[in-house]
What does this fold into?
Amino acid sequence: MTRRVGNTTPATPRFSFCIRERLSPIAANKQHIEYKRELRVGDVVTVRSAVDEVKDKVIRLTHEMTNDETGEVAAIMHLVAVYFDTEARKSLPLPPDIRERASRMIVASPEPK
It folds into this structure.
C-alpha cells in the first residue's frame, strides 16, 4: 500500500476480512517499532505487511515502511496480535477459518546476508 506522509486515511490490513464479521477482535498485544530513517510531510511511502507466524491464539506480523523516492527503509514494526474476548477479557483460540486463511498468508523470512 502506498501513502503520502501526512495522509490520515486509515489503512485496512488484508486479513481484516476475518475480523469484520466477528464479535471478538484481534488485539495488538505487543509492538516493537524500529525507526531507521526520517520521513518528511509529503514523502510517498509504501508499507509492506507480512504474516510471519500463526499459532493457536496469536498472529505475528511485520510491517516495513519504505520511502518510495530513496528506496530506504524508514521503519519496521513487529506486532504480536492476539484473538481476544472483550467481555471475558481473555485470549481465545483463533477460529479455524481465520487461522487457515492467515496461515496461507505466511511469508518466509529472507535469508540473512
Remarks:
- The helical segments are 17-20, 96-104.
- The first strand starts at residue 2 and ends at 4.
- The chain is about 10% helix and 45% strand.
